[in-house]
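S.,

As promised, the zinc ion run. Input:
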Amino acid sequence: MANLLRFSVDRVRDHRRLVWVLYLTTLAPALLWAGLMSTHLFSGFADRPMAEDLLGPKAFMTWMEYTASPDTKVGAVLGLLPLFLVASWLLQIYVSAGVTHVLVGAEQSKDGQRLPSTLWAGMHHFGGRFARSGLIFLVAVVLLLVLVGSLGGVGTALADGSEDETWKLRIFVLQVLLGLALFIPLDLAYDLSRISAVAHDGRKMFRGFRKALGTVVRSPRYWLFYLGFALAAVAVMAIYGWVSGLGSASGGVAIFLMFCFQQIVLLVRSRLKLGLWAGEVGMFRESGEPTWCGEGRRPPVAEPLPQLGDSSFVV
Amino acid sequence: MDAETARLKGTEKLVWRNTSSAEVEDLWFHHYLNAFSSNRSTFMEESGGRLRRDSFDEKRWGWIEVSSLRLEDGTDLKGVEEYLSPDDGNPFDRTVARYPLPRPLAPGEEIEVFIEFESQLPSIFARTGMNGDYILAGQWYPKIAVFEDAGLRGRPQAGWNCHQFHAHSEFYADFGDYDVTLRLPDRYAGKIGATGELVEETREGEEVVVRFVQPGVHDFAWTAHPKYLVLEDLFDPVKDVPAELTTKIASWLGLPEKDLELTPVKLTLLLQPQHAEQADAYFQSAKAGLRGLGLRLGAYPYSTLTIVDPAFGSEGSGGMEYPTFITGGTSRAMTLPLFRDLPVPEMVTIHEFAHQYFQGMIASNEFEESWIDEGITSFYENQVMAETYGIVSLLGAEMDFRDFGRRGPPSGPPDPIVTPTWDFYDSRSYGVSSYSRPALVLRHLEATLGPQVFHRAMRVFFQRYQFSHPSTQDFERTFSEAVGRDLSSFFSQALHSTRALDFSIRSATSKEVEAPQGVFWQEGERIELEKPDKKKESDGDKVYETTVMAFREGGFRHPVTLELEFDNGERQRKVWNGEDRWHRWTVTGPSKLRSARVDPDGKLLLDANRLNNGLLIEKQRGPVTKLLVNILFWTQNLIQAVGLFS
Ligand SMILES: [Zn+2]
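Predicted complex:
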C-alpha cells in the first residue's frame, strides 16, 4: 500500500501539468455552458430587483423561481443539459486516453517537451478503444444498479411479512453499502484494463475488463487504496460544504474569494483523480503488466516500466 | 366484528329530527363502503384503484349491505330501497341509497329508524379497512345524508345533499350524538380507540365490549390493533401555552388575554411499538395544534383527542381526520440522524388536528367546496408549523416553514378553487385548488389586510358558523363584513375564476429635462432663451423626468402599490387600482430613478411571476455574477461526476 502511494505521489509530481489538463477538461465545457447562460441572465435578470435576492441566503430558491418564471428563456438552454453532459463525457474519455498514455510512458518521466504530443498521441490512438470500454463499464454499472435495486423488493417483502418496517431500512442501508462496495472493483477493473490496452496496444476491451476484474477481485488492497481516494474527495466536498455554510457572499471581493475557493476545490479533486490513476498504473505494474486486452502490432508506447521500489524512474 | 373475515354485523338506531322548514318525504343514506365493492364503482373508475400513492388490493373488496330498515311501527323500508347515482348516473355505484317514507315528516318532527347492516372492510385503502390484525374503520355504517333547508348554503329549495363517493372527495354529514358499542375478539382488549370518550370496557367470554360516547359530532370512526402501545398525555393550557404566544395573538385579535383561555384535553396516542421513540413528536405537535388554533379561533370544545399511528403497510389509513380522532403517519426512518430534525410527521398531525376546526366543527360540504376544509386547514397548518418549528436546517440547506408554499403555480390553474371535487381537470388540479392555492389566498389576505384585521375576521367566521354547514358565500359575506370592506371582487376572482394575478414594470426611464430654449413670452414681452452652458450648470440644478409603465399581465384585477426609488435615496409610492391594463406614472424631480417596483413589500402572495415585478435603471452585475460563478462550479462538479465514467 505504501509503495503504491509513493508511486502515485512520485508519478503525479513528475507530471504535474496533467493536473491542469484534467482541471481544464472540466473547466472548459463548464465555461462554455456558463457563457450560454450568461447572455440570458445579464439581459433578463440583472435588471430585475428580484436578482438582489441572489446575494442572500435564499439564493437557490430565487434561482428556482427565476427558472420557473414564464419570462425566462433559460429553460431552452437547460434542456440541452443531457446532450451537453454526453459531449463532456466523450471529451473526458478522450482526455483520459491521453492522460493514461502519458502516465504509462516511462521514457519522458518528467513533464518535458513531449507532453503535448504524448497526450495527443494517446487521445488519437486510444480514444476509440476508451470510448468502447466506457460503454462496457456503463452497462456493467447499470447491471449493478438493477441488481442492487431489486434488493429493495426483498426489503418490502420482509417488512410486510414480519410487520417490522425496520427491515426496509436495513435492506436500504445494505443496498447503498453493497452498491458502493461493488462499484469499486468495477471501476478499478475498468481503469486497469485501459492501462493494459495502452501499455500493450491491446484492443479487446471487453476481455480486458473481464480479466482485470478477476485480478481486482483477488486484491482487496486495491479496493482500500481506491476507497482512500474516494473518501478524500468526499472530505474535500464536506469542507467545501462547511465553509460555504459560514455565510453568503454578497460583495465583489467576497464573490471573487468564493470563486477562487471553488476552483481550488476542483483543482484538489483533479489532483486526487490523477493520484488515483497513477496508483492504478502502479497496480498494473505490480501485477506484472498483464496483456488483458491482448497485444497489438504497434510497439509498446513505453519502455518497460521501472519496477516498484526501484527509484530509477524518479530521476 | 368478525376479525377473521374483516366483516362486521351492526344494528343502528337513528333518531333523526327534521330541522328544516320543509316536509321530508324520504331518507337518504351514504353507503360509502360500496365504493370498494367493484372496479365499476364511481370511486374505482375515477381513481383507477390508486389514491395518494396507495393502491387497492383486489384480494378483498369492501361493501356494505342493509338487511332491514324499520320504522317504529315495524314497517321495513328495505323493500323500497333504491340506489341512486345523482352525480354521474353510474348504474354500478351503490354509495347513495334512498328510502321513501310511508308518510312525509313534518318540520320539527322526529323519526326513529332501526337498521340492521353488514359491512365488509376492504384491505386498507382510501382511509379505511383492515390489514392483518390492524383495523381502521371509517365510513363503516349507513350514514344519514344532510337534509339542507332552503337558504342553507344558498340553495333555493330544501332537499337532500347526498353525493356519491368520488376519488377526490371526502364527506359531508350532519351533527348528532353518537353512542356506539363495539364487540371484538378479546385480543383487542385495551387496544381500541374511537371518536369520543371511552365510557366502559368489559369482557364477555372471548370478546371485549367497549362503548364510546360523543355528543355534537358528525362522524364516528374507530380503530383496533393488538400491538398498539396506548399512551396518554394531557394538554394543560397552563404548561403548554407560552405566555408570549397568548399575548401576541390577543393583540392581533384585540381581546383581553383571559378571553383566549383554553381548556385541558386528554390526549390518547395509539402508537405502533416500532415508533415508541416518536411518541413525543406526536404529543408535541398535537399540543402545538391545540394552542395554535385554540388561541386564534376559540378553545377546542371536546375533552378528548385520539391520535392513531397507522400500522406498517397500512399507510392508506394515515393522514385522516374524524371528530376528536385523527390518524397521522410516520416511519422508523424519521428517527435517523438526517431526518430527525425534519418535522414531517408533525406536519401531518398538525394538519389533521386543524381539521377538528375546519371539517369537524365547520362541517362544510367537502364534495362541493373542498377548499373550506382542506384549504383553510392547510393555512392553519402553515401558521402552526411556522410558529412552532420556524426554520429547520438539513445538511446546511434551510427549510423555512414561514416561507413554505408561499409561491403559487406560475401560470393560472385550470380550475377555479370552488369546483365540485369530481369536476376537476385532474388530481393535480384538485390538489392545488383544494390545498395550496386557497391557503395562499388566505396568506395573501393576511399579508394585505394585516394580521389583526385578518385574524379577527377569521375568528368571527369560525365562531359564527361552528357546528353548522357554511358555504363559500357565507365565508365571503362574513369575512367582508368583519373586515368592514367589500371584498367580493377579490373573492370572485380568487375563488371563482382561474385568473392569474401578475403585475409588472414593463419600462422605466429617467431623462434629464433640458432647460427652456427658444422664444417665450413673459408679461407681454418676447424673450429668447439660449441653450445654457453645460459646464456652468451644477448637479443641483438638474431636473429629471421619470416615466414608469406598470402593467397588469394577468386577468386578476387588484390594487397594487408602485414604488419609485431615486439615486438620492428618496422613495415615492402610490397605489394603482389595477383595473386598467396599464398605468403610466410620470414624475419630475431632482434625482435620477434607480428602480421601479410593483408590490415593493411582497404582500401580493398570489403574484404568479415575481421576476417582472420591477426594473433597475442600471443593471446590477454583482448578483448575476455570483449566480454564474455558482453555475460554473456546479457544472464543473456535474462534469466531474460524469467523469466517473470516463
Ligand atoms: Zn386535510
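The mean pLDDT of chain A is 86. The pocket of zinc ion is lined by residues B 351, 355, 374, 377 (CB under 6 Å).

- D.
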